[in-house]
Fold this sequence. Notes:
Layout: H1 10-19, E1 21-26, E2 39-43, E3 49-52, H2 54-62, E4 69-73, E5 80-83, E6 86-90, E7 95-99, E8 123-128, E9 137-138, E10 141-142, E11 150-163, E12 169-175, E13 187-189, E14 196-208, E15 211-222, H3 227-234, E16 245-248
Antiparallel strand pairs: 1-2, 1-4, 2-3, 3-7, 4-5, 6-7, 6-16, 8-11, 8-13, 9-10, 11-12, 12-15, 13-14, 14-15
Amino acid sequence: MPLPELKSGFLAVLPRVKSATALIGLAPERLDDQAPGVGTGFFAGETGLVVTSNHVIEAHVESKMAQWLRVWLPARPKPAPYQVAGYLTDPLHDLCLLWVDDDGHLPAPLPIAWDYEIREGEDVALCGYPYGFTNMFNRGEPGLRGVNSVAQRAIVSALWPYRSSRGGEIDMMQLDTLTNPGNSGGPVFLPSTGEVIGVLTGFLQHRSNDQVLNTGISEAVPIHYLHNLMRRWEAKDSSPWRGATVVSQGERR
């Protein structure tokens, strides 16, 4: 018996969110069991723009490895890697915009709830790649098997100010859900509409007797902090990008 068509709600919007949520990883020739993935990103704003966390790509930029970064889409039968054409960063809010060239096969950008007022106790959902490439290695034999994202539900357990290591204070969303390093940069969205309201940036750990324990508490940056990056992106063709960390891969030295 065929399943009824879903027109609204979480199960209806989830396929669209998952199709637009990408793995930020390395080029195929640079993949190994020590670096199977970097983090998560998602298409938003306009075709070819990918939102992620600054710390997802920061180490690769500083080590001049940015040319090996790829945006991996969960295509079938094999995942499709897209070279990062350039990036723009906002270290204070731990946000980054990547862009890739549109070949006609990119997913539709996710809608952004720019003016949404986030409330404590609200139900949200998130999507990401906690462990990078799933089943990429089998008994030491390399073989790319697939890129599979994971969807989760959570509530906004708190909204609180956080003093950034970069200077300045920003508001953060505390989520009651267990995430892993690969989730960084993934979308936090409204389960009923798929609109993005935040970007997952990390999780809290507790150290005890030389052990590091995951607390089951995650953190996200509210999406309104993306405004600054989007304005700089929109102004890039009409004004100099002074004060911005913007690099086109073709211009790297």
